[in-house]
């Protein structure tokens, strides 16, 4: 349990920062490109501020990612010893992606005054590509744990390893797309939420308007696509991991004409207090009411995932997802009619909360994925209990990790708040100020 809690805390913390590593470079480079293309300095100022936040979050993500890399070997040595040769390739490739990203993040942050606008925008593109590539490689490794491929078992030993087949496993395409879209939703709605708060406080200048529109539109575009991909991923579970789908729906008995359950709690072996939509689950999975859905009765009790955490997490994720879809549709309708934001203050209020909602949906989705695979760490090949480090003292490691992440959280919040309260400047203005400070030490007080 100590190992599982430690891994859950580490992954749950890191995945939020990792989402910004995927989505924020794209939004930042787009804003800068748009500013230089239109000659609108507001875009460039916005990109300059976002680049600083991107740099901070990249540094923090490097720390939390390093912790995770150690935890894989320290907490789950049997997993790595047995299957590391099978699914280690994407982790190695992710290391290359990380170093490419680190190099070009440095260039992008410190070369505003040393490169032409065109060259500087181009220097941000490898950051965008490397961020998406990192998500692809890591999620493909997780997808392998759900649909393991690329090896043979002979006498209980792993042989004939095929790393590329392992990386491109059946679950990989949908899981990767689902995660990348989630990253853009988290990034877009979180950034838009910050500017929505500013607009609610009366800051309706062009800086805040663009700061809201760019990330919100990006998130609103991917939200309906995410709903479609999520539906396809849930349908994939019907054949790839039937017990996980059964736990998601709280389905105890195998059969056809299965209803879709909305809400409810799993008590004494059955789902209670739920709203049941007749035949809906069978229709969603097989497009006809007669589609047979496997229930938990087809799985030995020792092989069943815990139902309530999986079911409730999935319900939370879906509820928030459809809420964000409605918010996006509200914006789209107002923009189509008047080329402006909805006039109701409730739109900005809900937008201010959309980032928190997107993060909660992200975490709930990962709980569904990981807890729904239990008791297996590698689906139907290795149990979680057999992969864990048997050494005593893991609780001490958990306490140390909790302390590290508490410090990281406070430090990150402090630095981001300092960036938030600094005046918005264009790059050239900031360089001039820095040069004057270095030359006189009093330029900020007396002016140029």
From TrEMBL:
The keyword Electron transport applies. It is a multi-pass membrane protein. The chain crosses the membrane at residues 12-33, 53-76, 88-110, 122-145, 176-198, 210-229, 314-335, 347-367, 394-416. Keywords: Cell membrane, Electron transport, Heme, Iron, Membrane, Metal-binding, Transmembrane, Transmembrane helix, Transport. It holds the Pfam family Cyt_bd_oxida_I. It comes from the Bacteria. Belongs to the cytochrome ubiquinol oxidase subunit 1 family. This is Cytochrome ubiquinol oxidase subunit I. It comes from Actinomadura alba.
């Amino acid at each position: 349990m100590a190992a599982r809690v430690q891994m859950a805390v580490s992954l749950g913390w890191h995945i939020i920062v990792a989402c910004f590593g995927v989505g924020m470079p794209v939004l930042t480079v787009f804003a800068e490109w748009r500013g230089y293309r239109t000659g609108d300095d507001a875009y460039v100022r916005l990109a300059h501020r976002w680049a600083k936040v991107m740099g901070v979050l990249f540094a923090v993500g490097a720390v939390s990612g390093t912790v995770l890399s150690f935890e894989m070997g320290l907490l789950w040595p049997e997993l790595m010893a047995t299957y590391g040769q099978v699914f280690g390739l994407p982790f190695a490739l992710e290391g290359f992606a990380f170093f490419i990203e680190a190099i070009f993040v440095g260039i992008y942050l410190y070369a505003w005054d040393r490169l032409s606008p065109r060259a500087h925008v181009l220097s941000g593109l490898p950051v965008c590509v490397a961020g998406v590539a990192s998500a692809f490689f890591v999620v493909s490794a997780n997808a392998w744990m759900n649909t393991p491929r690329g090896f043979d078992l002979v006498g209980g030993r792993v042989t004939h390893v095929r790393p590329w087949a392992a990386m491109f496993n059946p679950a990989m395409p949908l899981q990767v797309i689902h995660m990348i879209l989630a990253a853009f939703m988290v990034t877009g709605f979180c950034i838009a939420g910050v500017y929505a708060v500013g607009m609610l406080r009366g800051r309706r200048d062009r800086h805040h308007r663009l700061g809201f529109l760019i990330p919100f539109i990006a998130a609103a575009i991917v939200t309906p696509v995410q709903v479609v991909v999520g539906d396809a991923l849930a349908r994939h579970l019907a054949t790839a991991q039937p017990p996980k789908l059964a736990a998601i729906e709280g389905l105890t008995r195998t059969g056809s004409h299965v209803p879709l359950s909305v809400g409810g709690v799993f008590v004494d072996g059955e789902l209670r207090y739920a709203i049941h939509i007749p035949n809906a689950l069978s229709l969603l999975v097989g497009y006809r009411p007669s589609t047979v859905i496997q229930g938990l009765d087809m799985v030995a009790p020792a092989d069943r995932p815990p139902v309530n955490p999986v079911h409730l997490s999935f319900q939370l994720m879906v509820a928030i997802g459809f809420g964000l879809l409605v918010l996006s549709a509200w914006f789209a309708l107002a923009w189509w009619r008047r080329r402006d934001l909805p006039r109701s203050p409730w739109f900005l209020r809900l937008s201010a909360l959309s980032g928190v909602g997107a993060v909660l949906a992200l975490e709930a989705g990962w709980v569904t994925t990981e807890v729904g695979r239990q008791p297996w760490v590698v689906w139907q090949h290795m149990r979680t209990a057999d992969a864990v480090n048997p050494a005593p003292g893991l609780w001490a490691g958990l306490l140390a990790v909790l302390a590290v992440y508490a410090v990281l959280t406070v430090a990150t919040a402090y630095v981001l708040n300092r960036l938030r309260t600094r005046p918005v400047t264009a790059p050239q203005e900031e360089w001039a100020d820095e040069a004057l400070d270095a030359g006189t030490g009093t330029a900020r007080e007396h002016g140029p």
